[in-house]
Every structure is written in C-alpha cells, then in structure tokens.
Amino acid sequence: MEQDEITRRNVAIAEYMDGKQGFVIYDSDLYDYRPMTIEEQQHHVRQYNLHWEHIMPAVEKIMREFSENIHSWLPMSSDNPKMFHSKLHGAFWLIEGMDKPLIERVWLAVSEYVLSLKS
C-alpha cells in the first residue's frame, strides 16, 4: 500500500478518534492556520497501522458504538465495512490476508469502517 493511502487512512482514524475534521497547522508566515500537507500529516498523525496502543482505543470506540446501536446494524450484509465485528472477526480468523501481520489486518478493518462513515 502506498504511503499516501496509509496516511489518508490514519488521518481518517485520527479524525474519528478526536472528533475533528481535517488537520490544520499555524503558519507563522501567513499568521493564519492552513491545512496540513500530506508530509506534515505523516509526522503529526499517530501511526495506527504500526502500534497496538494507538489502534486498540479505536477498536474499543467502534465496538462501544456498535453495541449501543446494534439494532440499526442488523439488516446490513456482513460484507459492508460498517459491519465492523464481522470484519474484525475476519481479520483474526479468515485465511485470506494471513500473509499480513495481525495489526495490519485489524488496522485495515478499522480504517475501512471509519472511511465508510464518511460516505
């Protein structure tokens, strides 16, 4: 996966966790805030794809929300990224993707879920 796509997914997770849209930085040359570039985001956004201590709070938040709203999720297909529990189960137990580290499989399930919320 390309670094830009990894960053895009990590930014989406960070926005989901922080409840903020977009990342800005104070630009002293302009005396104003401006959106961060991809390079700046890579330095400021947690690497959810590399560290369990970063990705697990996102898993816990999703599972809490899922549990609170279980009735609204039931009619969905298990292929839908919003069916997070199914995707998480697949990350652990399905043969497909076993060539990737477990943290990467979990991160993919989390990032697909978070990105599906934006659509």
Q: What keyword list fits this structure?
A:
mainly alpha; two-stranded antiparallel ribbon; globular
Could you characterize the architecture of this molecule?
- 60% of the residues lie in helices and 7% in strands.
- It has 119 residues and is mostly helical.
- It has one domain (3-118).
- The protein has a two-stranded antiparallel ribbon with strand order 1-2.
- Strand 1 (24-27) and strand 2 form a beta hairpin.
- It starts with a helix and ends with a helix.
- The mean pLDDT is 79.
Could you outline the blueprint of secondary structure elements for this entry?
Elements: H1 3-18, E1 24-27, E2 32-35, H2 38-44, H3 52-68, H4 70-73, H5 84-93, H6 102-118
Antiparallel strand pairs: 1-2
Helix pairs in contact: 1-6, 3-6, 5-6
Radius of gyration, CA atoms, in whole angstroms: 16 Å
Average residue pLDDT:
79
Distance between the termini: 21 Å
In helices, the fraction of residues equals 55-70%
Query: What would you call the shape?
Result: globular
Number of helices: 6
Q: Spell out the helices and strands N to C.
A: HEEHHHHH
Number of folding domains? 1
The unreliable regions are none
Please give the order of strands in the largest beta sheet: 1-2
Instruction: Characterize the biggest β-sheet.
Output: 2 strands, antiparallel
Which class do the helix and strand fractions yield?
A: mainly alpha
* Oligomeric state: single chain
Content of β-strand = 5-15%
| Beta-strand segment tally | 2
